[in-house]
Amino acid sequence: MSQPTTEEAQPTLLWKSNALSKVKDLKSATTNSQFTNLLEAFDAVDQRRGKNVILLTRTSVGWTIFEYVGSSACKVNFKKFRINGLPLGGDPISPQTYIIAGKDRVSRILHDENGYRLQESPRHAEEPASPWIVEAFVPEEETNHGKNLTWLPHFTLRPSPDELPAAIKWVSANLSIRNTVRAGGSKHSWSPVGTTSGVYVEPYRMKLSLTIANEQPVYRADIPIDVINNLVRAGSGNTIKEMNRWLWEIGLAFPYLGGYDGQTLGGVFPTGTHGSVFTRGPLAEMIMSTDLILASGETVRIEPKDGITDREALKRELPHIRLIQDDSYYYAALINIGTMGVVHSYILKVTPRFHMNEIRTASTITEIKNKLREEGIYRLSGTPLDLKPVDMESIPPTISNGISDGGFKDQPLKPYHLELLINPHSEKVVITSRHPTLVAISTDNEMEFTPPGRDLIKTIHLTPRLTRPAFPTWLQERFNGLLSWGFDTILKLFPCMIPGLLDSAMDTLVDDAYTDRSFNVFNVGDGTNAIPALAGTMYVPVSQDQYLVALDTIHETARQYATAHRRYQTGMVSLRFVKGSVAHLSPNEDYCSFEFIFTGATTYAQNMLNEYEAALRQRLGENRVWIHWGQLVDSTNGKGRRAQYTGFKRWAEVKKDLDPEGRFSGWETSAL
Known about the structure:
Blueprint: E1 14-15, E2 24-25, E3 33-35, H1 38-48, E4 53-59, E5 62-68, E6 81-82, E7 97-101, E8 106-112, E9 115-120, E10 136-137, E11 142-143, E12 150-151, E13 155-157, H2 164-174, E14 181-183, E15 199-201, E16 209-211, H3 225-228, E17 231-235, H4 240-249, E18 252-253, H5 265-268, E19 287-293, E20 299-303, H6 311-317, E21 321-325, H7 327-334, E22 342-349, E23 351-352, E24 355-364, H8 365-372, H9 377-380, H10 389-392, E25 417-422, E26 428-436, H11 441-444, H12 456-461, H13 470-493, H14 498-507, E27 511-517, H15 518-522, H16 526-530, E28 533-541, H17 546-565, E29 573-578, E30 591-599, H18 605-620, E31 626-627, H19 648-658, H20 667-671
Parallel strand pairs: 13-15, 14-15, 20-21
Antiparallel strand pairs: 1-2, 1-6, 3-5, 4-5, 4-7, 7-8, 8-9, 10-13, 11-12, 16-17, 17-22, 18-23, 19-20, 19-22, 24-26, 24-27, 25-26, 25-29, 28-30, 28-31, 29-30
C-alpha cells in the first residue's frame, strides 16, 4: 500500500468487500480539512455523514479529516478495511485515528500485543491525554529494491529531525529491548542491514540542507574561510539526488559519488559505499561531524580530535548536545552500519561545483593486465589530492596513444575517476574515465539535474557530447521492465546465450565523449538504476597486483560454475579503485572493489557470490577479502569477518559505549 510522504498527503484507504473481490482503493472525495480539537472535528464529521468514508486523525497541530467516496462502504464490516500504512495520530501505542463509515458507525485503530486492529468505538469528544510523540504509521510489509528481502516491523516511525530525539527516547522508555531500532534508507541494500522486525525509522522527513553560515556560531574561529565555504549540514534522510540539486544551486557539489543517486545519506555513508576516485576513500570520509541520537534520546556530536566544533561555543549555544572529539569514535562512527544510534544529520565537506567529461572505450582482459601489472594503476589513475576538481577543469588531460605512453588508447592519462567493466565469461572490457572539464555557461544552461535520456527527441537534438548513446539510454529509461523481462526469459530458456548478450550490451556503452554536470556523469542513469538487479561487492588489495590475481580467479570461478551448473553470471563485474580508509570497518589500505551484478531474477546469485568469495579467500588469504555491508553477503560466513578489520576491537568498544543495551544491534552485529 502506498504511504503519504508528507503530513498533508491523503493516506490511501483500502477495503475488500468479500473473499472473492479485489482490494479497492477508495477515491478521495474532498481536500483535507484541519481542526484545532477533536470535538470540532467530530462536529464537522456529523455534517458530512452519508455514504462517504471519513478518516479522522490527529496531527502535531490539531486534527485532520480526509474524506473518501464509498458508495457501498457503509455496508462493509470495519474488519474489511486495510489499515496498513494509515497514520496513528502521533502515538504508536495509543493511536488517535478513527474511520467513520455511514451514520453513527465509528471505528478506531487500537494496538495490543498482537499488533494493530480496527474496532468499533464510541465517539470521543475529549482530547487524548497522551501527547503527540512522533508521526507513526500502522506497519506494512516492506520490500527492498532488489526484491530479495521483505520484512514487517512491529512499529513504523516517521520523525522529523526535531522529533527524532524524543521519539528514540520514547522507544527506550516504552518498548522492550526486543524491539531493536533500525533507521531505514532508500531500501537499495541487498543485505539485511536496513531491515528489522522491531522499530523501523523511516527517513522521509529527516531532511535538512543548511550552509554553515546559517547555523549557530559553534565552530572554531581558526577554520580557513575556504574550508568553511565548503561545509554543509545535511539530514540523514536527504537523498543524494536532492543534495545534488541543492548543492549545485549554491555553487557546490559532491567531489565524488557512486553510480546511483536515490540512496539516502543515512544509508550510503554507514555501509561504506564508495566511488572510483583513487585518491579518495569511501563516501563517508566527506563527513566532518555526525550528530547521532542514542537510545536515551541524547544527541552526541562525533568528530576527530581536531574537529571543527568549538567546545565552549557548543555548550553556550546548544547545551543539549554532547561533544565527542576523539579519533577512535570518529573512525568507528564513519561506517557504523546503523548499530550505534540514529543519525540526525552530518556536516559534510564538499567542493565547488564542476563539470566532467566521460569517455568509454573497449579493451580486453589481456590488455588491462599487461598495462596494470606492477601496480600500474598508480601510474594510470589518480590526481593530486590538494587539487580541487574545479581547478582541474582548465587543465586538459593528456590523451593516451595506447602504445608508447603505456596508457589506454583514447583515454586520459591519470584521470580523476577510472573504472573497468568486465564480462566474467569473456575477454571483453569497457574502460570508463571521468575527468573535470571546462564548460561554458551557455552550455551548462542546456544541462539539467538528471542525466539526459528520458526524452528521446530532446536527447537526439543535444550535441553528442552532452549525452550518452541516445537510443540505448532512452530504451533503458522507457522500457526497463520489458528489457528485464526479456533478459530473464532468456536466462530461463537459453542460459548459454548470456555471455554473448553481455558482450553485446557492453558494445552499446562505448562512447567517445559525454560532458555534463559532475553528478550526472557519476550517475549511471535512471533507466539502468530502475532495472531490478542484485549485486554483491568484494574488496581486495591493490598492493602486489593482488586485484589482478583476483581478476584471474573470478574468470576461472565463473568458468567452473558454468561448467558445473550450466549457469552464468547475468551481469557484468565493475572494478573500481578506492583509497584505504581510516574507518574501523573498512579496508585500511588501497583496494579494488569488485561489484558482481546480476539481474533481479537470478535465483542463484548468492550461491555464485559464495563461490567467488571462497575462491578469492583461498587464493589471496582469509583476511585479504572484505565485503560491502549494504550488498549481498553470505550470512553463514559472518563470525570470521571481524579478523579482517584491524580496527574491529576498537569499533566494538565504541559500539558498546554508545549502545550499551544493544538497542541498535541487528543482523550485522551478530555477523561480526
